[in-house]
Amino acid sequence: MINVTFVCLGNICRSPMAELIFKNMVKERGLELDFVITSCGTSDCEEGNPIYEPARRTLAAHGISGSHFARQLTLRDIKNNDYILVMDSSNLMDVLRLTCGGYGDKIFKLCSFTPRPRDVADPWYTRDFERAFADIYDGCKCFLDYIISRL
Ligand code: 4NP
How far is ligand 1, taken at its centre, from the CA of residue 33, in Å? Predict the structure, then answer.
């Protein structure tokens, strides 16, 4: 079993998008029994809130549905997961602050698995949810290819 949690700041846009995109991708490859997939936020500012409507609409436009309620990341989540996949450099610093620099071997930026490592552009500020979707989709696809290559 491979435990994966996606992490952003609020857990209402990017990381729940990544959770649902990756769940969908894993299902398409018939691997859903091999993964436990969740998402969390580094902040508690959106605790309990559903997926932000523009993010939900963007997922739906790509045929992806599902729900999620925001939850703040804890040290236990980091201990219990094999991969902590953050969206940007700011998330990475926040997570490493939580771990006092530990667990670095399982904390990665999602798009570090792609041929073009980069941050997922934060749609909260850009309002470009399609661009965030494309970055997250690319990151998830390359991460899944990496996992499959190691099976
Ligand atoms: P997320 O987006 O981290 O992708 O869920 C944000 C959600 C809320 C805020 C910023 C980004 N905020 O500042 O409240």
Answer: 30
The model's pTM: 0.98
pLDDT in tens, 75-133: 999 999 999 999 999 999 999 999 999 999 999 999 999 999 999 999 999 999 999 99
- What are the DSSP E strand ranges found in 1-119? 2-8, 35-41, 83-86, 107-109
* 142 belongs to the catalytic site: no
Q: Which residue, judged by its Cα, is nearest atom 12 of ligand 1?
A: 10
How far is the C-alpha of 106 from the C-alpha of 61, rounded, in Å?
Answer: 32
Does residue 55 have its Cβ closer than 6 Å to ligand 1? no
Cβ pair 13, 87 in contact under 8 A: no
Active-site residue, 119 included: no
Task: Assess whether the C-beta atom of 136 lies below 6 angstroms from ligand 1.
Answer: no
Q: Distance from CA of residue 112 to its chain's centroid?
A: 13
The backbone torsions φ and ψ at residue 10, rounded to the nearest 5 degrees and listed phi first, read -95, -20
Burial of 6 (0-12, 13-18, 19+ CB in 10 A): buried
Q: β-strands 83-86, 2-8: how paired?
A: parallel
